[in-house]
Amino acid sequence: MNPSLDKLQPYPFQKLATLKAGVTPPEELNHIPLSIGEPKHKTPVFIRDALHDNLHGVATYSATKGTPELRQAITDWLIKRYDLPPESLDIERHVLPVNGTREALFAFAQAAVDASRQPQVLMPNPFYQIYEGAALLAGAEPVFLSCTDENNFLPDFDGISPGTWKRCQLLYLCSPGNPTGAVADMATLQRLINLAEEHDFIIASDECYSEIYLDEENPPPGLLQAAAEMGNTEYRRCIVFNSLSKRSSVPGLRSGFVAGDADLINPFFLYRTYHGCAMPTHHQAASIKAWSDEQHAEENRSLYRKKLEAAHDILYDVLPVERAAAGFYLWPETPVSDTEFARGLFAQQNVTVLPGSFLSREVDGMNPGSHRVRMALVAPLDECVEAAERIKTFIKSL
Predict the structure, then answer these.
(1) Among the listed residues 296, 196, 287, the one whose alpha carbon sits nearest the alpha carbon of residue 237
(2) Separation of alpha carbons 110 and 139, rounded Å
(3) For residues 145 and 128, what is the distance between their CA atoms, to the nearest angstrom?
(4) Splitting the chain (398 residues) into consecutive groups of 10 residues, what average pLDDT does each group show?
(5) Does the keyword DNA repair apply (predicted)?
(6) Would you say domain 3-42+296-397 falls under CATH 3.90.1150.10?
(7) Is the separation of the CB atoms in 350 and 26 below 8 Å?
(8) I need a surface site. Which of 53, 106, 213, 331 has the fewest CB within 10 A?
(9) Full DSSP string of 34-45
(10) Is the full-model pTM beyond 0.70?
């Protein structure tokens, strides 16, 4: 077997299961999971109908590149959402449908990294563990860039050494961030594009939380938008990943896209023809409907805002919880260690949260997720309110 498999750490939820083992929460309290970022809002009926109405597609193989209609719907959405020059995006050259961003974020590193040159792959810390696994199995060394409150939960790009930039082949960026909700502004994105040109690396921007934000008038900027505004309408060294899972509450649809630099998309497409990962045609039909409608995405954001506001109002006087600009997570500091907090909360209140240290790696003796927990406000409003009340009760008992 590939010896790099031995370098993979247990997934955060495996660690969480071990942490909770042997604990019996109160039977009279229903379990409220805030640990997994799996949307629980109802999938819009028109998306389900499109799936049902196109089931005849299971009788044929689907193309790796997807249908022209799906690529056009994605392209139209990108142009409208980020105000991109229409002529800068070609459905044949710049866009590929993928089965959710998770598989694409992993696969892209396998296609992009040259393992013969002692590569490094940079990523935020805390982070989505797929980035680390992708780097390791591509033969690269992961480099963790700690995101702390001192730096507004964004990586300190000023602190990266010239030697690291020289070895960097791929930079994973996550904006809005998981779990912090931090948003990289336009200046930061454009600075990274300039650094990529200077040091010869690729930026892989995970933007799957881009459509969950608080201010309807100020959506988070995207990497392609930043490139276009600085005149880089070929999107050199820029590749973005996005998904319908959060935007449209269809995590089981496994539908997303990769878009950007045609010189990156083309070889990645070749890789994917061998990878065998074409999206089923009925999923493509439903995806076209989803990318073409904004009303349901606006309604989805409204639901998350209500939950985030409600949880904040309940917790703010007992827990230093800040309202992030985007995403559906809370990332508060804990009065005891994050693992003690998570285990005790489950034992006393039957609420599950994810210890922040499980989402991070220790760098220079410090784990940036330590003494923090991730709370995913994906449950219905009433459950999120009840969970917040139980968390408040637990904190008062400490």
Answers:
(1) 196
(2) 9
(3) 13
(4) 94 96 96 95 96 94 96 98 97 97 97 97 97 98 96 94 96 97 97 97 98 96 98 98 97 97 98 93 97 98 96 95 92 97 98 98 96 97 97 97
(5) no
(6) yes
(7) yes
(8) 53
(9) -SS----SPPPH
(10) yes
